[in-house]
Amino acid sequence: MSPPVPSDLGYVPPDGGWGWAVVFGASVSVGFAYTFPKAFTIYFKELQAVYSISYSQIAWITSIMCATTYGGGPISSILVNRYGSRPVVIFGGLLCGIGMVSAAFCTSILQLYICVGFITGFGLALNLQPSVIIIGKYFLKRRPIANGLAMAGSPVMLCTLAPLNQFLFDNFGWRGSFLILGAILLNCCVAGALFRPIRAAPASVKPQVTEEGKDALKEEVTEEAMEMSSPTNVPMENKTEEEGGKDCCEKINQYLDFSLFKHRGFLIYLIGNVLMFLGFFAPIVFLAPYAKHIGIDEYSAAFLLSILAIVDMIARPTTGIIANSKWVRPRIQYFFSFSIAFNGTCHLLCPLASGYTGLVVYSIFFGLAFGMVCAMLFETLMDLVGAARFTSAVGLVTIAECCTILLGPPIGGTLIDTFGDYKYMFIKCGAVMVLAGTFLFIMNYYNYRMLAKEEKERKAKEEDLKSVRTENEGRNNCNKETAQEGPELEPLREEQEGLKKEVNGTNEV
Q1: 86-90, 166-170, 251-255: least confidently modelled range
Q2: Secondary structure of 109-172 as H, E, C letters
Q3: Does the structure show a pLDDT above 90 at 468?
Q4: CB neighbours of 36 closer than 8 A, spacing ≥ 6?
Q5: Is the dihedral of CA 102, 107, 110, 113 positive or negative?
Q6: Does 317 or 205 have the greater pLDDT score?
Q7: What is the residue-wise DSSP string for 194-239?
């Protein structure tokens, strides 16, 4: 599958310049959007003790936050199409700050669900999608590298926030930590200020109107004039309900392109990703609590997230460079499928890790697999639908994914509560992700075969049309030659007719 052509945007992206500042701002926004739910797990043990709740109940905080972040995708896409990325990200940063400051004064777990889960989660939604969308407007040839660098903001933030949260908790308690985190999240506003709207003018093309185009235009004007002059065609002042419904659908389609649900590659991506997210976030949410459960101290448990983040930080830009190569980019969907299956294999092998050394090895491989998936998560979608339809596509994908994101960690917490062991949660997540990777690999192979077949049929039709046009042109030329030679051959024709008449007269006699 070849990379999208620049024509679907109407201009040639600069592939650099201010785009690198945009990538830096996107790395900050994306970093907070992906990292904050993971780093927040540091407070789980304390919140469980304060509110006397179970693992599954405490897991709902990050589940609601992640689900709101993804479920707010269509709203974020509509706002980006209406106002642009910059104001949307700045407003999202303000919501994040308000949500965490409000959470510092919560007195029940339900209030935390609202402040941390919904308000902060929606603020992160307004940071994630615009940051990914604007990269596609600034980059084309270097887009996989730019996406990889932007996604690298997540492990950088995780490497910083995980130990920072532990430090804040030890010195200021969870309430004081939430106030400080609210102030830190306001940096999303600064990142959003870097998202300068691109004003690349499209290449000027002089309009060339052919004779056929002129004739077609004349026919259309004539038909319209006849329709307007027809007595049966009286203009109606009031629109019917059907027309009103069509106008409403057209207005919605201006912001969200629902025709994507007829796109075969988009549907394959959507189904695979919805399945994948059922086991994507739960291992990160429970990694630090699992380490504490087997007797590892708090700082060492938090350091596991830092190890994962460091490897993830290296894996994302490296994956972007590999995905941008001429060998991988035409078949990037296979690479993405392998990354998901590799991620699931790591979770299946995690229960075999015994002690802190085993968890360090698991964190290294998990960070590598996690970075590979995240680096290509949006690049593969853009490769399928193109940059022009990506804004709608990412909004529709995230709203579908939010259900499994919402259910993943609570299901994992329920397994822990039921069996009293974390290994069943890791096995469940691993099995689901291996299944998702296998599904995507098989269906992408089918999609590539169908695309090749459709391309072959299209070329055959074009050749048939060319041959038909050639035959028609040959006939037209023959007719023209006959018409031109007609006056010159007229005397010979008259002489032949006269001879015929004489012969006929002789026969009658």
Answers
A1: 251-255
A2: HHHHHHHHHHHHHHHHHHHHHHHHHHHHHHCCCCHHHHHHHHHCHHHHHHHHHHHHHHHHHHHH
A3: no
A4: 65, 96, 120, 124, 157, 161, 185
A5: positive
A6: 317
A7: T-PPP-PPPPP------HHHHHHHHHHHHHHHHHHH-TT-PPPSSP
CA-nearest of 466, 196, 148 to 314 is 148
The backbone torsions φ and ψ at residue 380, rounded to the nearest 5 degrees and listed phi first, read -65, -35
Are 318 and 148 in contact by the 8 Å Cβ rule? The answer is: yes
Match 């499209």 to its residue by tokens.
202
Per-residue model confidence as pLDDT tens digits over 181-217: 999 999 999 999 999 887 654 444 444 444 444 444 4
Amino acid at site 265: G
**Confidence band of 87 (pLDDT split at 50, 70, 90):** very high
Write the DSSP string, 173-197: HHHHHHHHHHHHHTHHHHHHHT-PP
How far apart (Å, rounded) are the C-alpha atoms in residues 7 and 70? 29
Give residue 225's identity as a one-letter amino acid code. Answer: A
| CA atoms lying within 13 Å on the CB side of residue 354 | 1
**Which tokens is 64 given?**
């609601």
CA distances in angstroms from 285 to 42, 56, 99, 342, 401, listed in the order given = 9, 11, 20, 19, 17
Residue with tokens 């709740």: 53
Q: Structure tokens of 160?
A: 């910083």
- Supply the pLDDT for residue 499: 56
Residue identified by tokens 């031109």 is: 484
As a whole number of angstroms, the distance between CA 146 and CA 392 comes to: 20
Contact 274, 266 (CB under 8 A): no
Q: How far apart are CA 299 and CA 292, in angstroms?
A: 10
Distance CA 471, CA 94 (A): 68
Beta-carbon-side half-sphere exposure of residue 438 (alpha carbons within 13 Å):
8
pLDDT score for 436: 95
* Over residues 333-357, mean pLDDT: 91
Q: Does the pLDDT at position 78 exceed 90?
A: no
Rounded Cα–Cα distance for residues 494 and 500 (Å):
10
Judge contact between 101 and 179, C-beta under 8 A: yes
